């Protein structure tokens, strides 16, 4: 079996040749990138995005997608400036024609009007995958094309991607000793287009070291569209339902069972063995934390809650992890928790009670007072959440 460091080393190409690149100015490369990207009025390419997760407790995984992407400049559109289309191998499809964003997922076509939902469209189309890869990567790199930031970008040398010689650039990006970040850009020496971005994020949680490798690349670049109607909704296929985007549906999904409600009872198996029932905890303050293994924010929240589990007396405050979708044996949940130094009790089969608490995503957190009433809820993780939870618990103990 390959070691963790060995897997990282093979995740992208060998270290580049340095000698030949010593006299090349990084600013000149950035200027060439900008000129090359802005010169592209229309075109298409194949996008490859790969996520490799490497964990020391062997909870590793690989997901990858291939997307056929199209773009065309649209001077009349002030929102994106382009018409865009993407067709992924798993059936996910998206077309933005300057007036509407059409998205096909789970065989459902969702139609979003720019006139009504411009900010939502921009949010969905802002990223580093799909047809916006070239423009958004260029925009990020041009941030370093100024005196105040130029010292943070460096040319490592030359490397090869898909048989093409590339400049290999890197950005200084690490600030937290427990979370390191390295980013590499492969820029064609021939076309000056950015062809690949590799981001390596390494974090430590307890005794577990986790490395995430985001590998985005493009191949098969053509500078002309093959079809004139590429951004027509008629290009979309394989959907059975059509619906207009409704922001209230998303708002509803963020509405957990409200503060002031009696907490519904449950009885679930403990990962450590036996069972736990909410009514058995009456007379104590209970913090319920919904989570699952693949959820990165869940892990951050879980580790932060462990500190509260250790801070407050167990006869007054109980922090309970509610695993929603993982199998305790197949997914080795006991090892997962132990390697992250999590000792607070955790139950599984939490999907059976998600609807009772109106939980539609994780992490989700509830604080229940000694009388069994919900006094605090939070959907999603934030860096300030634990301080808020600490304060609520302290107030409840007075």
From TrEMBL:
Is Lyase one of the keywords UniProt gives this record?
Answer: no
Cell compartment(s), UniProt: Cell envelope
Q: Which UniProt keywords apply?
A: Cytochrome c-type biogenesis, Disulfide bond, Redox-active center
- What is the name attached to this protein's record? Peroxiredoxin
Concerning PANTHER family, the annotation shows: THIOL:DISULFIDE INTERCHANGE PROTEIN DSBE
Biological process (GO), any one: cytochrome complex assembly
Stored Gene3D superfamilies: Glutaredoxin
> In the record, which residues are listed under signal peptide?
none
Q: Name one GO molecular function term.
A: antioxidant activity
Assign the protein's first listed, main location to one coarse class. Answer: other
Task: Check the record and name the CDD domains matching this protein.
Answer: TlpA_like_family
**Ranges where the Thioredoxin domain occurs:** 257-398
| InterPro entries per record | AhpC/TSA (IPR000866), Thioredoxin-like_sf (IPR036249), Thioredoxin_domain (IPR013766), Thioredoxin_ResA/DsbE_sf (IPR050553)
Q: What is the lineage of its organism?
A: Bacteria, Pseudomonadati, Bacteroidota, Cytophagia, Cytophagales
Q: Which GO terms describe its cellular component?
A: cell envelope
């Amino acid at each position: 079996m390959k070691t963790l460091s060995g897997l990282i080393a093979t995740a992208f190409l060998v270290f580049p040749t340095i000698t030949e690149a010593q006299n090349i100015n990084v600013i000149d490369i950035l200027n060439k990138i900008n000129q090359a990207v802005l010169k592209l009025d229309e075109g298409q390419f194949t996008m490859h995005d790969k996520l490799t997760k490497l964990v020391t407790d062997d909870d590793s995984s690989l997901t990858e997608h291939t997307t056929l992407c199209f773009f065309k400049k649209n001077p009349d559109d002030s929102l994106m400036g382009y018409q865009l289309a993407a067709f992924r191998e798993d059936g996910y499809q998206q077309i933005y024609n300057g007036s509407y964003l059409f998205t096909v997922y789970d065989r459902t076509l969702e139609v979003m009007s720019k006139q009504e939902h411009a900010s939502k469209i921009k949010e969905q189309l802002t990223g580093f995958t799909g047809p916006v890869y070239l423009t958004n990567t260029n925009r990020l790199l041009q941030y370093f094309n100024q005196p105040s930031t130029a010292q943070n970008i460096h040319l490592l040398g030359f490397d090869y991607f898909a048989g093409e010689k590339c400049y290999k650039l890197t950005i200084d990006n690490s600030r937290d000793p427990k979370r390191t970040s390295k980013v590499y850009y492969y820029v064609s020496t021939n076309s000056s287009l950015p062809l690949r971005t590799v981001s390596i994020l390494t974090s430590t949680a307890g005794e577990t070291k986790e490395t995430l490798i985001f590998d985005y690349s493009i191949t098969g670049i053509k500078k002309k569209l093959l079809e004139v109607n590429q951004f027509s909704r008629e290009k979309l296929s394989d959907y059975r339902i059509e619906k207009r985007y409704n922001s209230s549906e998303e708002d509803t999904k963020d509405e957990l069972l409200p503060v002031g409600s009696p907490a519904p009872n449950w009885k679930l198996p403990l990962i450590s063995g036996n069972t736990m029932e909410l009514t058995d905890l009456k007379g104590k303050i209970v913090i319920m934390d919904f989570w699952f293994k693949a959820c990165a924010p869940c892990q951050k929240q879980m580790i932060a809650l462990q500190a509260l589990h250790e801070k407050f007396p167990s006869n007054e405050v109980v922090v309970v992890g509610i695993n929603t979708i993982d199998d305790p044996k197949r997914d080795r949940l006991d090892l997962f928790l132990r390697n992250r130094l999590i000792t607070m009790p955790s139950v599984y089969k939490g999907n059976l009670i998600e609807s009772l608490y109106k939980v539609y995503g994780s992490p989700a957190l509830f604080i229940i007072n000694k009388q069994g009433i919900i006094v605090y809820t939070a959907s999603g993780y934030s860096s300030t959440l634990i301080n808020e939870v600490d304060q609520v618990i302290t107030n409840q103990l007075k």
